[in-house]
Inverse folding.
């Protein structure tokens, strides 16, 4: 898999985790076990931020700029 596909996959995964975490947080307000679902939702949102941050940092490596030049946006 090329660097472009990995970057795209990481961004899509981050977005999916963020949306799922936010939906779970909204759902947690209407169920009896609010604390458990809220913790899972927080974990998903924070994981989304970490995945996006790691993806950004990986794009800053010197060799990554050359490989990312060939990506079609």
């Amino acid at each position: 898999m090329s660097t472009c596909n990995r970057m795209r996959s990481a961004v899509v995964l981050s977005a999916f985790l963020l949306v799922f975490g936010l939906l779970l947080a909204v759902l947690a307000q209407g169920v009896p076990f609010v604390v458990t679902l809220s913790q899972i939702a927080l974990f998903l949102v924070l994981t989304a931020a970490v995945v996006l941050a790691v993806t950004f940092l990986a794009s800053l490596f010197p060799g990554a700029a050359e490989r990312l030049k060939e990506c079609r946006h």
Remarks:
- The two ends are 17 Å apart (CA to CA).
- The mean pLDDT is 87.
- Residues 3-68 form one domain.
